[in-house]
Known about the structure:
By secondary structure, this protein is an all-alpha fold. The chain has helices spanning 20-43, 45-53, 60-82, 88-110, 118-141, 143-146.
Amino acid sequence: MTETMTRTPASHAAVPARGKGLLTFTLWFGMLDVFLFGATTFFFPEFVIDTLAESAEVSFFAMRWGGGLLMALAVGYAYMLRRPAGQMPMFTTFALASTMAGIGFFWSWLADEYTGNDWYLIALFAGTFGLALFMWITRFVSKELLD
Length: 147
């Protein structure tokens, strides 16, 4: 009688515990952050502009495509949450995207390019830059999980 052996792929190997909780928290935070802002911007751009931002007229077209992109990024976060092994390049790209978005919001605020409520721009900056900070810390702490 021959026994069949099952091989476990590297992506299904035992996951080290170091950084797992932080990685899970960061990915959930990122997924919810980009999905909620993306869905609001995609489906209700008039609410974002008129109610929250109280900003000048902006083309809804210019907002909807960004909202769709953010909702797609939420799918990427879910994918990394489900299977973090081997996702270091994608995780690093998402961390860089959050960093650049935070810098962009801060730059617009400093350059006085924004005409709406300052609190809204500060909230956007805090959300994106806070996510970026969590992602960079998580990247280094959870390196074994993402490689």
